[in-house]
Write a structure and sequence with these properties.
4 copies of one chain form a homotetramer.
Chain A (H helix, E strand, L loop, with lengths): L2 H11 L4 H12 L8 H12 L2 H18 L5 H9 L6 H10 L3 H14 L3 H10 L8 H19 L5
Chain lengths: 161, 161, 161, 161
C-alpha cells in the first residue's frame, strides 16, 4: 500500500471519512461559489490529501494521537497531549504544514474552522474531550485539510460574480 | 512624538479607536474568561500595540492604504490594492508579523475575526468596499491586534474553570 | 501586458534579472542535485514567479520600495523603510507569502540566503545601504524566489543518491 | 519537578546542554553585538526555553524522537521519522512554534542555523544519521532555540554601531 492510500485509510480508522471533510469544505466555500457540490469538494479534498506535505502531516499527527492514547510517551508529555488544553498549541502548528502551502485563504479558513468546529471536527473534538480517544492533533489536521481545499476552490473554480 | 503615540494617532485618524479594537477582543475572549471587562481588554490591546513588531506593521499597513488611496503606486498595483480581491493575500501576510509573535491562539482568532468581521472590522471593510477610503491592509491589522490581545489574555489571565 | 510579464519587467527595471535569481538557486541546490544547470534553475524560477502569490508579493514589494525612494510615505514610515534596520522585519514577513506556499525547504533556504546574501542579493542590498535606491523589500523577495525554486527542485528533480 | 526543569533535564539527557545552545547563539550574534559573552547568551537561551511555547515544543519533539527510536509508531511513520529525509518537513514546522513568537530575526537565523548546522546541531544530526539515536525533531528545536535567543539579543541588547 502506498502512503497516500495508507493516509486515507488511517483517517477513516480514526473516524474521519473523505466525505466528512468535504462537507466542511462545502460549508466554508459555498457562499463564495454557486453550484459548488459535495462531489466537487471531495475532489479538492483528495487533491490536498495527496500532497506530500499533507501525507506526512496527517500520518505524524495520527501517530502522536495514537501513541498518547496508548500512554507510550513519558507521563508529563502524555498528559499534555491527552488533556489538549488551549495553550498547548503544538497541534495547530503541525497543521500549518498543510495550511501554509495553500496560501492566505487557507490560513483564515483554518482559524475559522478551528474556532467554530463544524461537522466532524466537533464530533472528534467531543470524543477527545471525553477521553474516549485522543484527537488532539487530528481535529486541527481536519480543519487544515478542509480549509486548504476551500482555498484551492477559491483559486481554481470560476467565481459567480 | 514617539512611534507608539504616532501609531495610536494614525489608527484613530483612519477610524480605529483603541476601544473599538478592545470590543473585538472582549467579543473573542469573554466566553473563556469570566469577569473580563472592556477596560481589561483595552490594557491588553495597548500591550500588543506597543510592541515593536506591531508598531512597524501598523504604520506600514496604513502607509500602503493611504498611498493606494491617493493613487501613488503604479496603476496595476494601485488597482490590486484598492480592489482588495480575496486572492490578493498580501494584507493577511503582513498582519502575521503581529499574529505570529503571539502564538497559536492569536492565529486561530485572527482567522476567525478575519472571516466574521465583528464590530469596527466590518465598518472599515464596508468603507473600503465602497471605495470611500482604502482599508485593504488595515482591516487585517485590526483583526491581528484584537486576536493577539485575546491570546495574551488566554496566557496571562486566570481561567474560571 | 499581463501581470506576469509586468512582474518580470519590474524585477528587471529594479536590477534583478531572471538569470541572477537562477544563479542563487543553482548555488543553493547544486550540492543536492548533480547535473543541475542554470537553464534548469531558470525554468524553476519562472515557475515560482508565475504563481499568483508571487506576482502579488513582488509587485507590492517593489511598489513599496519605489514609493519610499520617492519619499511618498509619511516621514517616519519613509525613514523606517529606507533605513531598513535589522529589527524592521516587515520585509521578511511579506516575502513569506512566496516562501510559505513552497514548504519547509523553501523556509530554511530563505533564512540562509537572507543571511549570507549570495550574488544579486548582496548587490541590491549594497545599493540600498548606500541610499542610491531603496531595496528594503526587494532583497527579501529575491531570497524568497530563489529559495522557493530550490525547494521545487528538491521536490520534483530526481536525487543523485 | 516543574515542566521547565523537566525540559532542561530532557535536553541534557538527549545530549544537548544549555551551554552548547548558547555557543550557537554566540556564533550567530557576536558579529552584530560587541562584548557578547557566552554567559550572556546562556541567560537569553534560558529566557527562550522557559517560555510556555518552548517547553511544549521541546518536550513534544523529544517525545516523538524517543518513541521513533523505540519503534513505537506504525512501521511506515516510524521509518519516515527515523530516516529524516529532506522532504519530511514536519520537524521544521514544529520548531516554528518557538521561532514564530520571536520575530523575523529568529526566522532567518533559524533557516541559517538549520542549513549550516553549527556546533551541537551537527553533532546530534550526525548521531541521528548514523541511526544511533533519533534526533529528527531535536536538531531543528536546537536551531530554533539558538536562533530565538539571537533574536532576543538583537532586540534587547544595545548595538555597538
Amino acid at each position: 500500500m502506498d502512503l497516500k492510500e495508507l493516509t486515507i485509510k488511517k483517517l477513516q480508522k480514526r473516524g474521519v471519512s473523505i466525505d466528512s471533510i468535504a462537507e466542511i469544505t462545502l460549508f466554508l466555500q459555498e457562499k463564495y461559489c454557486n453550484n459548488l457540490t459535495l462531489e466537487k469538494c471531495r475532489e479538492y479534498v483528495l487533491n490536498v490529501i495527496e500532497k506530500r506535505e499533507s501525507i506526512y502531516a496527517i500520518l505524524t499527527a495520527i501517530a502522536i494521537d495514537e501513541a498518547a492514547e496508548k500512554g507510550l510517551f513519558d507521563k508529563e508529555v502524555n498528559e499534555l497531549i491527552t488533556n489538549d488544553e488551549g495553550l498547548y498549541g503544538i497541534d495547530e502548528i503541525l497543521a500549518l504544514s498543510i495550511v501554509n502551502v495553500h496560501g492566505s485563504i487557507a490560513l483564515t479558513n483554518f482559524g475559522y474552522a478551528d474556532k467554530i468546529k463544524p461537522g466532524i471536527i466537533k464530533v472528534i473534538d467531543h470524543i477527545g474531550k471525553q477521553k474516549i480517544q485522543c484527537h488532539t492533533f487530528l481535529d486541527d489536521i481536519v480543519s487544515a485539510i478542509a480549509a486548504s481545499a476551500a482555498s484551492r476552490i477559491a483559486h481554481y473554480e470560476k467565481k459567480d460574480n
